[in-house]
Amino acid sequence: MELFIYLFAALFSVLNPIGTVPIFVGLTQGYTKAERSKVSLLTSFNVFVILIISFFIGQYVLQFFGITITALRIAGGIIITSSGFGLLNGNFSKNKGINKKVQKDVENRHDIALTPLAMPMLAGPGSISLLIAFYQDHNTTNEIIISSIAILVVAATIYLILRSAHYLANILGASGIVAISRIIGFLTIAIGIQYIISAVLSIIRGI
Question: Under the phi-then-psi rule, with left for phi > 0, alpha for psi from -120 to 50, and beta for the rest, what region is 30?
Answer without folding.
Answer: left
